[in-house]
Amino acid sequence: MERVLEGKAAIVTGTNQGVGFEIAKKYLEAGASVAICARNKKLLEKAQRLLRPMAHAGQRVIARDTDVSKIGDVKKLVDFVKRELGHIDILVNNAGVYGPKGVIEKVDWREWARAININLHGSILMCRAVLPAFKARKTGKIIQLSGGGATNPLPRISAYAVSMAAIVRFVETLAEEVKEDGIDVNAIAPGALNTRLLDEVLDAGPEKVGQSFYERALKQNLSGGTPLEKGAQLAVFLGSSRSDGITGKLISAAWDPWSELPGHLDDLKGSDIYTRRRIVPKDRGKTWGNDQ
Fold first, then answer.
1. pTM above 0.90, yes or no
2. d(CA 17, CA 36)
3. Where residue 292 falls among pLDDT bands split at 50, 70, 90?
4. Are 156 and 210 in contact (CB under 8 A)?
5. Per DSSP, what are the bridge partners of residue 91?
6. CA distance 65 to 67
7. Which of 27, 98, 160, 274 is catalytic?
8. 160 catalytically annotated
9. Which alpha helices (H) appear in 52-157, and where do they start and end?
10. Which of 7, 119, 125, 152 falls 20 to 30 Å from 91 in CA-CA distance?
11. Strands across the sheet with 183-189, in order?
12. What would you measure as the largest C-alpha separation in the chain, in angstroms?
């Protein structure tokens, strides 16, 4: 991999396994120093041990156990990274959970709210914490991991679906807020990943997640799913100067021609390409309901 992130410092949340770990690895290969965080301190320390040998001269791998849904934890993490690495150039919000599985009137409400708190509030808190430094330097990259719930209903996994849809709209909104500050904000749809989240669905069974979703999960498990490196490579691209000017978008790692997007900046700016938008009848070739 080309070292397109040489000299950069990045925070990657939810890094002790899965796509978060893969992103941290690809960031190191691309030349960045990385600050990793997760709630499970033991797994985080293991991840740090595995990542450190991948760092070249001048690169560092630092770690701090953090609950991104807690304001105090987030502030301590950002202060720690500034102190240890000197600056922050990139934030990758990856920490997230599926939350409870089942019909909405029967799931544990505290667990439902907790999923929203981690997936949505945690990501927003991280953005709030790094933005002052980004604005002061007139540069910065924010990359948000999203999921299938951002673009499709997910019955029986409603907390996850709601939080993913909400965080994509937040990405679009924040991108508009900071467009004069040299900060790009984008979301990644990494594809159908075979991670602990898939294991949770299989463990829950069809009675909680629904027969059709369970069967899709079984097929995904057998096929191997989307390789983790696809999402990680897109995260590198969006963290690099090659993506300058691409902002406010939800980009699919598996399906969109993201490496070609710098050649289409004029088409992307001010358009609803790769965004969440309302569909009206005429968008689907219907003649009714088009008077307004």
1. yes
2. 11
3. low
4. yes
5. 11, 142
6. 7
7. 160
8. yes
9. 71-85, 109-116, 122-137
10. 152
11. 61-65, 33-38, 9-13, 90-93, 140-145, 183-189, 250-252
12. 64
